[in-house]
Amino acid sequence: MAVFLVQHAEKVREPGDPGITDAGRADARATGRWAARMGVRRVYCSPLLRSRQTAEVIAEQLSVAPRRLEPIEDPRATERLNWDGTIPFAAFAAEWRRTVEDRSYTPPFGDSSRTAAARLWALVSEVDALDGHTVVVTHGGVTVDLLRGLLGDAALSTALIQDGVPSCAVTTIDGGTPRTLASTRHLNHRQ
Fold first, then answer.
1. Is the pTM above the cut of 0.85?
2. Is 168 left (phi over 0), alpha (psi -120 to 50) or beta?
3. pLDDT tens-digit map of 64-102
4. Computed from CA positions of residues 167, 36, 42, 25, in that sequence, does the dihedral angle turn out positive or negative?
5. Which of the following CATH numbers is that of domain 2-78+115-190: 1.20.58.100, 1.10.357.10, 1.10.1740.10, 3.40.50.1240?
6. Per the count of CB atoms within 10 A, which of 98, 118, 160, 177 is most buried?
């Protein structure tokens, strides 16, 4: 069964653990409607607020009375680095760039790209073995980390590696193989 890695919805631009914006909620609702059409049975998310809120909105679209679908938090879906505001953003951005350029570099407040990819892959492999399709609401950096490990940099666009994954974009992994990368086609309300 397929695992759909969903980038969290647009977040409020502030340090720490910000939530999602109203536009992000609209994207998450559209993603939830798409997930319902795909027959998704469960939703996982990282413990970060933007991921949890996105997962909750998606789960609402998948819930059928009287059964309410609750997202399952799993720290393996967490981003490799999260800016908490304790250091200047420029210093955080420099650490981020270094983890992109050197996938083995472990920053003082996060994971290396390789470590982040391995932990997300462990989660994907686990839920891929379950019956039915699964959504994992995660983060752009760790999704790209995983894709770099599975496909290699040559198979990915420079924009995806450098700029990340758009809000609520879906990456489909089917049978351990990426089938679609950062697709936003389901967000037709934007058009």
1. yes
2. left
3. 756 789 999 999 999 999 999 999 999 999 999 999 999
4. positive
5. 3.40.50.1240
6. 160
